[in-house]
Amino acid sequence: MRRLLLTGIRQMALQDAPLPAISSPHDVLIRVGAVGVCGSDVHYYTTGRIGSQVVQYPFAVGHEFGGVIEAIGTAVTRVRPGDRVAVDPAMPCFQCDQCRAGRCHTCRKLRFLGCPGQAEGCLADFIIMPETSCFPLAPYHTLEQAALIEPLAIGAYAAKRAGELKGACVAILGCGPIGLSVLLAARQAGAVRIFVSEPVAARRDFAIRCGAVFGHAPTGNLVNEIMQCEPLGMDVVFECCGQQSALDQSVELLKPGGRLMIVGIPEVEHVSFAIDPLRRREIGIQNIRRQNECVEAGASLLDAFPELTNAMITHRFPPARAQAAFDLVAACRDGVIKAMIHFNQP
146 lies in a domain? Predict the structure, then answer.
C-alpha cells in the first residue's frame, strides 16, 4: 500500500509499505477514503513538534478521516466489512482513573493517530483501528463528511464545555476549521450574537456566511469595535488561534463572570494573563483538549448545516500532491478552509 511520511521539516515522501495485519480480535482494517489536513498536522510539518510531542522521522501524521471497513477481528461486533465509518482518532485504555471518570480524552495511556510517541497517522491506503473508534455513517454522508466530523466534534465539545449558550453573546478569535466548527456548534446551542476575528478574508467572509454578525480583520481595534456593539461584553470567548494577542483580547472582551475557552494550540511554551481584570471580573478559564464523546454531536452539525459544512471543504488533492496540500494550509493561501487528501475515492 501507499503511505505518506514526514521525513524532515517541510519534507514529505510517498512510500510503499506492507498492508497492516489485524492482531487484536477487537481491531478492524479500514480502507482510508478522505483525510483532512488539520492545523496540528501542519504544526508537525512546519516545526516538527507541538509542545512536548516531538516528531522522530520518518513519521506519518493525519487523524481526520473516513473510510470503509475492509476486514474485522474475531470479536468485533460494532461494524462489519463494507461499512462506511467516521473514525475517532483517540484510542483510550478505558481502564485508568481518567477513563473511569468519563475523561477518555485525557486517558493516562491514550494513543492518538498521528501523535509522536503514540500512533502513526492515517495518511495511508489502509490502517488498523480498534472497533471502539469506528462510527458507522448515515447512508447520505460521504467519506469527506466523515473526515469533517473530527473537527466538528471539537467544536461541539468546546460549545458544550462553555456552559449555557442559549441567548449568549459570543466571540470567536480565529476562524480556521476549528473556529468555524465552534461557530456552528454555538449557533446550534442557541447563541444569538456571534462576533469573529480572523485575518484571512475568505475565512472571515465564510464565518459571516455561517451566521456571525460581525467579522473583524485584526488591523483595527477589535475590542473597541465589538464593545461598541455589545457594551456589556461577551458571555463567552472562544480563543481558536493559539495567539497571545488573542488571549489578551479575550480577557478584555469578557463581561464579569464570563468564560474564556482556550481551544487554539499555542506554538510557545508559556502564555500569560493580566491578572487584575481576570481577578476583578472573576473570569473563568477552561482549556479544551480535543473532544470527549462528541462524535455524534459532530455528525449532527453535518445534518444541521449541510451546505455550510460541505462548503468548508475547499481543496482536494491526491496522495502524490500531499505536500502541496500541507504547504497550502500552512500558508492559508487560495481561500483554503479544509483541504482533503483522497487515498481511495468514495
Answer: no
